[in-house]
Design goal:
- By secondary structure, the protein is an alpha+beta fold.
- It folds into 3 domains: 50 residues, Structural Genomics Hypothetical 15.5 Kd Protein In mrcA-pckA Intergenic Region, Chain A; 84 residues, Alpha-Beta Plaits; 75 residues, Alpha-L RNA-binding motif (Alpha-Beta Plaits), CATH 3.30.70.1560.
- It is 26% helix and 27% strand.
- A hairpin with a 2-residue loop joins strand 11 and strand 12.
- This is Pseudouridine synthase.
- Keywords: Isomerase, RNA-binding.
- InterPro entries: PsdUridine_s_RsuA/RluB/E/F_cat, PsdUridine_synth_cat_dom_sf, PsdUridine_synth_RsuA/RluA, PsdUridine_synth_RsuA/RluB/E/F, PsdUridine_synth_RsuA/RluB_CS, RsuA_PseudoU_synthase, S4_RNA-bd, S4_RNA-bd_sf.
């Protein structure tokens, strides 16, 4: 079994984090630093920072956080204001996806590497809904152009759903996640984003969670989340 798959099935780390650890020489097989494509054979001892890794089932953690602006979605503890230190959970967790430093709202965190991998696959088209405040009135033309697709980063964004919330606020539902996508789309159309808040990820909603607070996902939410995963992967 490839080392990346072995680590993924341990549910300790998502694949991107595994690649980073391998590149840093922190994952070993039988005491020797391994490469990205290394094979794990029966009886091999795999370790991260000297701690053995097993595929024994552990207690899985799924959290929803209302991220404040100013917090960076990285597991690198050397980054000031990183999301892991902000949450302060007693065991290792990872953010699922990203919100840029100056955006706020819903983000999921977990120790289940497999869910991170599944959620990060762009082809699954998972819905993410945002509330956006801009610097001038939201017009019908603006909403139509946002929904139809905007040329940014050398490509045209996928068609999406939009709606007016107030004179200078609108909602948008995306099924892709280009870098700073909403901010870039607005800028291309002559608008500047003043506040960007994610209010929903698939079936998980932000309502009832104060800024800076987190909670464990409920069983019904998890069941709905996994059902959506399974449907998108059929």
């Amino acid at each position: 079994m490839r080392i990346n798959k072995y680590i993924s099935e341990s549910r300790l780390y998502p694949r991107r984090e595994t690649d980073r650890l391998i590149a840093a020489g922190r994952i070993t097989i039988n005491g020797q630093p391994c490469t990205k494509g290394a094979q794990v054979e029966p009886g091999d001892l795999v370790a991260v920072d000297g701690e053995p890794v097993t595929t024994v089932t552990k207690k899985l953690v799924y959290l929803a956080l209302n991220k404040p602006a100013g917090i960076t979605c990285t597991s690198s503890r050397e980054v000031e204001g990183n999301i892991i230190d902000f949450v302060g959970y007693p065991s290792r967790i990872f953010a699922v996806g990203r919100l840029d430093k100056y955006s706020e709202g819903l983000i999921l965190l977990t120790n289940d590497g497999s869910i991170v991998n599944r959620m990060m696959r762009a082809e699954n088209g998972h819905e993410k809904e945002y509330s956006v405040a801009v610097d001038k009135p939201v017009t019908d033309e603006f909403l139509h152009r946002m929904a139809a697709g905007v040329d940014i980063l050398g490509t045209r964004t996928l068609p999406c759903e939009t709606g007016r919330l107030s004179e200078t606020e609108f909602r948008i539902v995306l099924k892709q996640g280009l870098n700073l996508q909403i901010r870039r789309m607005c800028k291309e159309l002559g608008y500047r984003v003043l506040r960007l808040e994610r209010i929903r990820i698939m079936n998980i909603v932000l309502s009832g969670l104060e800024r800076g607070q987190w909670r464990h996902l409920e069983q019904a939410e998890l069941a709905g989340l996994f059902a959506l995963f399974n449907h998108s992967e059929d």
